[in-house]
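Standup notes
- DV: blocked on the single-chain target, sequence here:
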Amino acid sequence: MSNKTILACSHCGTRNYSTVSKKQEQRLEVKKYCKQCNAHTVHKETR
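- DV (later): unblocked, structure below
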């Protein structure tokens, strides 16, 4: 089953992206561009 997940920047904490992913035990971590930081940072799944 797929769930809608929200990704937040690990540096500034803003929630920039949303994705659809399968339920996992570990949180999703993806390197994406953050408009607030003006740089590529690690974005982590929020719950």
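- Follow-up: The chain has no helices and four strands.
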